[in-house]
């Protein structure tokens, strides 16, 4: 099958999973995403979605593995670094989270998600001035 058709299939199948996730049906979206991942194991978009879902389900080590796999497949995929950073903040690994956000900033210095999450990290560490600077960026 042509690669283009596979991408269309993937996008079509992602829509209900994303809808379920946004509507709070996290367990269902997890199940559907895991099944779809068997069909598209190298899709960075799907791996990212699976990682975010697993992070929300507190399946931190599995989520981290998804983000690491994305970085292997597509090293400049900024969402992997941002989502990995937010996971690391959640588990208290602030130094590693900072590294993720700094790499993300090298990829796109103007990405608002990077600045927002860096601000949250600084705020959580009591670095109020740094947080304000990140939020203003």
Give the topology.
Layout: H1 3-22, H2 26-39, H3 44-56, H4 60-73, H5 78-90, H6 94-107, H7 112-124, H8 128-136
Textual characterization of the structure:
The protein is mainly alpha-helical. It is built from eight helices and no strands. The chain has helices at 3-22, 26-39, 44-56, 60-73, 78-90, 94-107, 112-124, 128-136. The longest helix is centred in the N-terminal third of the chain and has 20 residues, at 3-22. The termini are far apart. Mean pLDDT is 90; it is low at 1-5.
Key phrases:
mainly alpha; 137 residues; disordered N terminus
Provide a concise account of the structure shown.
The protein is built from eight helices and no strands. The protein has helices at residues 3-22, 26-39, 44-56, 60-73, 78-90, 94-107, 112-124, 128-136.
Write down how many β-strands occur, each being a DSSP E stretch of 2 or more residues: 0
Would you tell me the overall average pLDDT? 90
Major pleated sheet: none
Fraction in beta strands = under 5%
Number of continuous helical runs: 8
Low-confidence stretches are: 1-5
- Element string (H = helix, E = strand): HHHHHHHH
Structural class by secondary-structure content: mainly alpha
Helix content: over 70%
Q: What is the CA-CA span between the terminal residues?
A: 45 Å
Rg (CA only): 16 Å
State the shape.
elongated
């Amino acid at each position: 099958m042509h690669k283009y058709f596979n991408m269309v299939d993937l996008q079509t199948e992602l829509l209900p999973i994303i809808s379920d996730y946004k509507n709070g049906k996290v367990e269902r979206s997890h199940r559907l995403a895991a099944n779809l991942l068997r069909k598209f194991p190298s899709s960075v978009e799907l791996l990212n979605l699976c990682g975010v879902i697993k992070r929300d389900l507190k399946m931190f080590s599995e989520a981290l593995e998804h983000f690491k796999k994305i970085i292997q497949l597509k090293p400049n995929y900024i969402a992997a670094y941002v989502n990995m950073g937010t996971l690391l903040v959640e588990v208290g690994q602030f130094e590693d989270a900072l590294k993720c956000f700094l790499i993300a900033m090298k990829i796109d210095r103007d990405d608002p998600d990077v600045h927002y999450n860096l601000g949250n990290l600084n705020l959580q560490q009591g670095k109020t001035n740094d947080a304000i600077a990140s939020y203003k960026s």
